[in-house]
Every structure is written in structure tokens, then in C-alpha cells.
């Protein structure tokens, strides 16, 4: 079970105790979670302290520790050094991968993202506004930046003509930030588990970004966060409350369609990271994505959550 543990109360102390992550406040235990159940720990609060034994235990369990700044955007990610029995070979292949392979991988990622955006629009509104047709126009490396063209059509159709995606903006941007932070943490863990180096990206290449590959691989899964946020806003959510966080965290366990049946979103992310690692070693792009969701696939996702 891959749980996202969210720490949002100031002044708490986190430690490892007999196989558990123990949370204390003022010397009093307020909760514990089995370390084996944790995929990532996300920190949103001030004055949080950690024991060194916990940081070691999280690394040994291949868990990421994500520290968030203002507006729930991540500012730091701690990830383990050892994640896969073929890590050395995978990382060498990743580092030596030629531009053509990197561009082909990025092309497939962008196509999958646009197809999911179009499927989401059709599921919630009945029309994709031309977004679906753009997927066929993506070439190797996406030199025409079709990804951005799709985004310009996608956001007004999903969240209204007045919406502007702004990491520092208010609702629903703060909810999107939180949802993306969750997906990013799960993706970072999958990248390390697949024996890849998260800093070496396919497309994201900011020198200060230590999670570039995770940012690349999470792109096809962003639309699932988007549709969750849309539904939460429709139900009256305007802030990142505990209920909103719970709804967005539960997205990682949401079953999505694949060629072999349904699988939790977190499992699909792991499969993609594994496929990327194999692609680097084999020298050819062969990726595995979930199928674009239909309206029925999103039924429980879109209608099942209620904001308290």
C-alpha cells in the first residue's frame, strides 16, 4: 500500500519507531504509520523536526521526503541513492542516451498527456475543443511545442475562460499545486525504484531542478489531478483543506484503464518509469501508458467525492 503522508500541523516531531513513522507533538504521540505502507512524506508545516533514524529508514524503504513552500508548491525533495539492482547500468544508459531517443520518449509522453487531456474534456463536457486532434501533430521532441498549444485550448474548456494557471495564484491553483506535488512525489519514488537518476531529464532541463525526470514522466498524469480539482471546485472547495488533500491523495489509488485491465494510478506511474529505464538500456523508445479514460472510467472519480 503506497500512502502519501501529509504533515500539515506546525511544531510536530517525526521519528522512526519499531517499523513505524511516529508523529509527536509536545512530547505526546499523535499518530504512527507503518513505514512499509509509505510512498512519500509531504511536509507543509513550519517548525517540523526529524530524527536522523527516520531519514535513514525512509531512504531504506525507497520513500521520498517532499518539503513544500508557499502555496503548496514543492521546494525540496530528498530521495534515496540506491533504488534498483541495475541502478549503475541504468544510470549509465540514461546519461549516454542520444538526443534522438530522448526526443522520441518525450514525443510519446506529450502525446499521452494530450490524449488524456482530450479524454478528460470529453468525459466532463462532451467535447475536446480540438485538443484530441493535436496529439497527431506532435513530432519527435515536440519542436512546435504542441504541448503548449493543447494547454491553451484545454484550460479554458476545463476550468473556464477566466482561469489562468499560476503556481502562486489562489484557488483552484493551490489545489492543483497540491495535487501535482502528490503525483510528483510518487513519480520521483518510481524513478528511483527503476534505477534512474531523477536529475537527468528528457525535456525539463532547468539547472536547479533535481527532479527533472520526475517532472517529465508525471506529465501524462496531470489531467487526472485537473479533473479532480474541477470536481472539488464545483462542490464548493476554495482552499486546500484536509478534505481536499485527502481527495487528491486518494487519486494515487484510483483505478485507471490499461491494456491489461485496470490498475491504480501509482502502479501505472511505476510501470512507465520501468519502461523508460528499459528504453534507455535497449536504445529504443517503448513506453507503457494507461489508456485514455472514458466517461465511465471517471464516474467514481468525478462524482464520488464530497467537500465537507
Structure described in brief:
Its cofactor is Mg(2+); Mn(2+). With about 300 residues, the chain is an alpha/beta fold.
List keywords for this structure.
about 300 residues, alpha/beta, Ribosomal Protein L15, Chain: K, domain 2, 2 domains, 4-stranded mixed sheet, metal-binding, CRISPR-assoc_Cas1_NMENI
How would you explain this protein's 3D organization?
- This protein has 308 residues and is of the alpha/beta class.
- It has 2 domains: 3-61, CRISPR-associated endonuclease Cas1, N-terminal domain (Ribosomal Protein L15, Chain: K, domain 2); 87-303, Up-down Bundle (Four Helix Bundle (Hemerythrin (Met), subunit A)).
- Helices cover 44% and strands 16% of the residues.
- It has a 4-stranded mixed sheet with strand order 1-5-7-8, sandwiched between helices. The chain has a 4-stranded mixed sheet with strand order 4-3-2-6. It has a two-stranded antiparallel ribbon with strand order 9-10.
- It is globular and about 60 Å long.
- The protein starts with a strand and ends in a 5-residue tail after the last helix.
- The mean pLDDT is 89.
Secondary-structure map:
Blueprint: E1 3-7, E2 12-17, E3 20-25, E4 28-34, E5 38-43, E6 49-50, H1 52-60, E7 64-68, E8 74-78, H2 87-96, H3 99-125, H4 131-134, H5 146-159, H6 173-193, H7 212-217, H8 222-234, H9 242-249, E9 255-258, E10 261-264, H10 265-282, H11 299-303
Helix pairs in contact: 2-10, 3-5, 3-8, 6-8, 6-9, 6-10
User: Residue share in helices?
Assistant: 40-55%
Count of β-strands: 10
Query: How many helices does DSSP assign?
Result: 11
Number of domains: 2
- Radius of gyration, in Å, reads 19 Å
Beta fraction of the residues? 15-25%
What sequence of helices (H) and strands (E) makes up the elements?
A: EEEEEEHEEHHHHHHHHEEHH
Low-confidence parts: none
Q: Under the CATH scheme, which class of the largest domain?
A: Mainly Alpha
Strand order of the largest sheet: 1-5-7-8
Would you tell me the structural class of the helices and strands?
alpha/beta
Q: How would a crystallographer describe the biggest sheet?
A: 4 strands, mixed
Shape: globular
Mean pLDDT: 89
End-to-end span in angstroms?
Answer: 26 Å
What's the CATH architecture of the largest domain?
Up-down Bundle
Amino acid at each position: 500500500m503506497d500512502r502519501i503522508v501529509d504533515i500539515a500541523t506546525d511544531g510536530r516531531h517525526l521519528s522512526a519507531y519499531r517499523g513505524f513513522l511516529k508523529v509527536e507533538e509536545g512530547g505526546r504521540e499523535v499518530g504512527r504509520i507503518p513505514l512499509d505502507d509509505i510512498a512519500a512524506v509531504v511536509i507543509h508545516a513550519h517548525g517540523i523536526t526529524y530524527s536522523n533514524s527516520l531519514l535513514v529508514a525512509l531512504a531504506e524503504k525507497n520513500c521520498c521526503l517532499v518539503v513544500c513552500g508557499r502555496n503548496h508548491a514543492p521546494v525540496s525533495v530528498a530521495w534515496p541513492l540506491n533504488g534498483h539492482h541495475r541502478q549503475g547500468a541504468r544510470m549509465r544508459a540514461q546519461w549516454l542516451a542520444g538526443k534522438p531517443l530522448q526526443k522520441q520518449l518525450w514525443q510519446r509522453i506529450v502525446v499521452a498527456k494530450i490524449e488524456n487531456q482530450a479524454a478528460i474534456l470529453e468525459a466532463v463536457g462532451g467535447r475536446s475543443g480540438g485538443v484530441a486532434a493535436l496529439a497527431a501533430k506532435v513530432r519527435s521532441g515536440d519542436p512546435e511545442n504542441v504541448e503548449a498549444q493543447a494547454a491553451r485550448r484545454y484550460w479554458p474548456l476545463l476550468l473556464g475562460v477566466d482561469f489562468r494557471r499560476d503556481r502562486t495564484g489562489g484557488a483552484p491553483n493551490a489545489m492543483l499545486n497540491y495535487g501535482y506535488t502528490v503525483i510528483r512525489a510518487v513519480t520521483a519514488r518510481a524513478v528511483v525504484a527503476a534505477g534512474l537518476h531523477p536529475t537527468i531529464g528528457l525535456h525539463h532541463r532547468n539547472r536547479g531542478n533535481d527532479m527533472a525526470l520526475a517532472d517529465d514522466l508525471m506529465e501524462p498524469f496531470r489531467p487526472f489531478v485537473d479533473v479532480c480539482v474541477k470536481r472539488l471546485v464545483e462542490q464548493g472547495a476554495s482552499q486546500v483543506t484536509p478534505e481536499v488533500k485527502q481527495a487528491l491523495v486518494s487519486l494515487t489509488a484510483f483505478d485507471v484503464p490499461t491494456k491489461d485491465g485496470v490498475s491504480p494510478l501509482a502502479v501505472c506511474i511505476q510501470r512507465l518509469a520501468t519502461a523508460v529505464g528499459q528504453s534507455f538500456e535497449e536504445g529504443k523508445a517503448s513506453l507503457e501508458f494507461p489508456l485514455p479514460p472514458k466517461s465511465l472510467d471517471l464516474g467514481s472519480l468525478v462524482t464520488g467525492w464530497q467537500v465537507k
